[in-house]
Specification:
Blueprint lengths: L3 H4 L4 H23 L4 H25 L4
Helix pairs in contact: 2-3
């Protein structure tokens, strides 16, 4: 039998930030499969990805929770 307490993420905020990063990356990958991105769109996607990654890393460093 599975212990449900161990199945719950230890840090909900970290899980949210990790999901946000995954979502940004996935959306960008799907968009580039549909069409070529303009230089501005690519820069915006890169900025969003860097921001999401930085938020996750900052959270890990501040709270010492690294999944």
């Amino acid at each position: 039998m599975t212990d449900l307490r161990t199945a719950v993420p230890t840090c909900i905020e970290r899980e949210r930030l990790a999901f946000e990063l995954l979502e940004v990356r996935t959306r960008g990958q799907y968009l580039t499969r549909l069409r070529s991105l303009s230089r501005e769109e690519r820069a915006e996607w890169d900025r969003r990805e860097r921001t999401a990654l930085a938020s996750l890393v900052d959270h890990d460093l501040e709270h010492r929770c690294n999944g």
